[in-house]
Amino acid sequence: MGRITAVPHSRQPLRSSAEAAASLATLRRGDQLFETERRLNAVLNNASVSIFLMDDRQHCIYMNRAAEHLTGFTLAEVIERDCPLHDIVHHTYPDGRPFPLEECAIDRAFPQNNHERGEEVFVHADGHFYPVGFTASPIRDDAANIIGTIIEVRDISEEKAAAERQRLLLNELNHRVKNTLATVQSIAAQTFRGQTDVAAREVFDARMAALSTAHNVLVADNWESASLRSVVERTLAPHYLAEIDPERFRIDGPDARLHPKVAVTLSMALHELMTNAAKYGALSVPEGRVAVTWTLTAMADERQELALTWEESGGPEVAPPTRKGFGSRLIERQLPLEFDGTAEIDYRSAGVVCRLRIPLTALGWMGQDAMTGHVSR
To answer: How many angstroms separate the CA atoms of 151 and 191, rounded?
Structure first.
């Protein structure tokens, strides 16, 4: 029989040692649970992101300090209202129309068992609207039944304002670039008037148009990067789109995002190859063909190398030029010098073949190359 243990200064009945041990273990578990809860609250209240915990009625049963600051409501005020959190912080569209709960993407995480992510507009306690980014996920019990929702929310007002400022600056930049190109063309027209032949003027205008086309590709993506396929297709468009026979051009290769500098220089290089082909090469005769193909290969420093080939066939017999023109110098000198790549133009009798190998500069935020040890060329 178990030994009886007395608990000094206690009004509780005497218990066996086994009962006392079980009671102490329960107390310890209670202390551990309290300590765990205290630490969890400390972590959540120190978080900069707002966190809401919802029950199966979509009523808020917990919000951390950041959430109280974000909404302007305290947890006690929210609980006292005894209604879905949506009706407190998300009840109205910015134009004043009511915002029904069933239209709310955040609340779909519970009934539809979804992991929802996106942007919405909340209403602050003082009545002003503010944009937020959110992530909402369902909470399950031990039986995998959904019993509530956890929502992470952050104020993205500054991000939206910065994006708008960037949009305005880019629009101004695009406007000035266009004006600059137009000014250069105007100056050239005045300078060349009566002093050069029409053909030279047309070559100059075509190169300016190629530069403008490269800029247009960048404008479409806010000057952050450009689609490799778009650069190729837009540069070749003057001939590619005008062809009755679609088989004259073959464009094949995986798409990739190009650094703005690479996009502009590659566009100019392709323009020179196309112009030469139209005057002397495969595009100067109806049976001529041009293939532009490329591959992407992983490099040791986690970048990719672009290997692009321009190949002409079916045109007049080719002979090496007696002197290097602007296009040849641009391709064989500028590309290797500027991007640490290689460029080779092979004037084969069957048709010109140009091979370019360009390490693609990693895209990212300003200064990322220095932080990661990559050198942007």
So the answer is: 65
Give the C-alpha separation, 217 to 235, whole Å: 10
Helix orientation angle between 198-219 and 157-192, rounded to the nearest 10 degrees: 180
CB burial of 288-298 (b: ≥16 within 10 Å; e: otherwise) equals bbbbbebebee
How many angstroms separate the CA atoms of 192 and 200, rounded?
A: 9
Residue type for position 263: A
Exposure of 40 by Cβ count < 10 A (0-12 exposed, 13-18 middle, 19+ buried)? exposed
Tell me the helices (H) and strands (E) count for the chain, helix number first.
11, 14
Longest distance between any two alpha carbons in the chain, whole Å? 123
Find where tokens 């009755």 sit.
244
Q: Which of 265, 264, 258 is nearest to 362 (CA)?
A: 258
How confident is the prediction along the chain (377 residues), in pLDDT tens digits per residue?
Answer: 443 334 444 434 444 445 545 554 554 555 666 676 677 777 777 778 899 998 888 899 898 999 999 999 999 999 999 988 888 888 787 777 887 777 777 766 555 556 788 888 898 999 889 999 998 888 888 888 888 888 999 999 888 888 777 776 666 666 666 666 666 666 666 666 666 566 666 666 666 666 666 666 556 555 567 889 988 988 887 776 666 677 788 999 999 988 888 888 888 888 889 888 888 899 888 889 999 999 999 988 878 999 999 999 999 999 888 887 777 887 888 778 878 889 999 999 999 999 999 998 766 433 344 434 444 44
Distance CA 258, CA 108 (A): 38
pTM of the full structure: 0.49
